[in-house]
Q: What sequence folds into this?
């Protein structure tokens, strides 16, 4: 059964994006699946079939453009807007969260409540996480093997969350899929609370007196 929806994210250079059906579900779409190789624009109404893509991801195939969005004004706005349904405010939260955790680390070390190697660990793992996001972005553009989402979450949880959040915002990557975004924010919250406990000495209040 064919479905219809709106193109909510599109990488014109890479030739891929996401179409959202009328029920609010997002499906991956590649330029190779669009009829006659037409390049859609954000806001276009599409008609498509559903198939299981790589890694079991639901994808749109046999895609045709039923209603094109206005041009050229829409094209100019696409460049300025954040991809998909992620607003600039939400993207800015990633930078704010990463900055807050960095300040908490520096505060904990400066107050003598955390060793310096904690900061080095976050820096090293953050750099590793950012590289993984960068590689995954490049692989997505070229259609090569992708980095597992579970691996991205594991590295973020293992002290790489600051770099992971920064990479998501810089590369505009992994910012649409609700489950992935939700897990990322849970990891960020865990680390923020842990670092706040170190910085403000809350751990001493929670532990029984000797």
A:
């Amino acid at each position: 059964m064919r479905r219809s929806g709106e193109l909510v994210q599109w990488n014109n250079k890479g030739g891929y994006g996401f179409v959202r059906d009328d029920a609010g579900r997002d499906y991956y779409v590649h330029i190779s699946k669009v009829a006659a190789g037409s390049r859609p624009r954000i806001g276009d109404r599409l008609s498509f079939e559903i198939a299981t893509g790589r890694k079991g991801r639901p994808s749109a195939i046999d895609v045709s453009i039923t209603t094109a969005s206005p041009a050229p004004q829409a094209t100019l706005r696409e460049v300025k807007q954040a991809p998909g349904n992620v607003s600039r405010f939400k993207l800015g939260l990633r930078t704010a969260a990463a900055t807050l955790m960095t300040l908490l680390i520096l505060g904990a070390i400066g107050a003598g409540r955390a060793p310096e190697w904690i900061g080095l660990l976050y820096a090293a793992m953050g750099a590793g996480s950012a590289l993984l996001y960068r590689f995954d972005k490049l692989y997505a553009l070229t259609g090569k093997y992708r980095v597992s989402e579970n691996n991205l979450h594991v590295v973020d949880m293992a002290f790489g969350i600051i770099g992971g959040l920064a990479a998501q915002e810089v590369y505009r990557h992994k910012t649409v899929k609700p489950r992935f975004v939700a897990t990322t924010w849970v990891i960020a919250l865990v680390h923020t609370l842990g670092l706040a406990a170190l910085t403000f000495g809350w751990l001493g209040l929670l532990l029984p007196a000797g």
Remarks:
- The CA atoms of residues 137 and 173 lie 7 Å apart.
- The longest strand covers residues 58-67.
